[in-house]
Amino acid sequence: MEYVWNDGGRIAAGYRGRAGDCVTRAIAIATRQPYQQVYDDLFAAQREWSETSRSRAAKAARGKASPRNGVHMPVIRAYLAGLGWEWTPTMSIGSGTTVHMRKEELPSGRLIVSLSRHLCAVINGVVHDVGDPTRDGTRCVYGYWREP
């Protein structure tokens, strides 16, 4: 897959240094929203989720709601569903890898692709991220959200 360096507007928003903000970057890139808006939205959504959910993960996230350090999957799912994006799973328990990070294995259009411990934007078969996450086409795709 072709790869293009893209921070989703992170530097323009005034952020410096390294961060685990792939969720914010991928959503900002794919949805064409400003990085700061997505960051603020996810910050509020993650804080609300951690305060209202009874899950073990939510309890552990209390007080650590910053999207700079990652966003929990229930928050990501709810946020993207609220934007009208549709989830397509490409794996299930016991199914093995069926889709890899290869242009010919992903649909065209604007996608937010779920990988192991990472999200990235793929636009018409081109990866937009701060590093190439494809592992030369061997990386497994868990699923993707697609623009409505």
Q: Please mark out the parts with pLDDT under 50 across 5 or more consecutive residues, or reply none.
A: none
Number of self-contained structural domains: 1
Terminal CA distance:
23 Å
H-E string: EHHHHEEEEE
Sheet-strand content, in percent, reads 15-25%
Structural class call reads alpha+beta
Helical stretch tally? 4
Written account of the structure:
The model has no long low-confidence stretch (mean pLDDT 92). The chain has 148 residues and is an alpha+beta fold. 30% of the residues lie in helices and 19% in strands. The longest helix is centred in the N-terminal third of the chain and has 18 residues, at 35-52. It is globular, with a radius of gyration of 15 Å. Strands 1-5-4-3-6-2 form a six-stranded mixed sheet, covered by helices on one side. The protein has one domain (2-146).
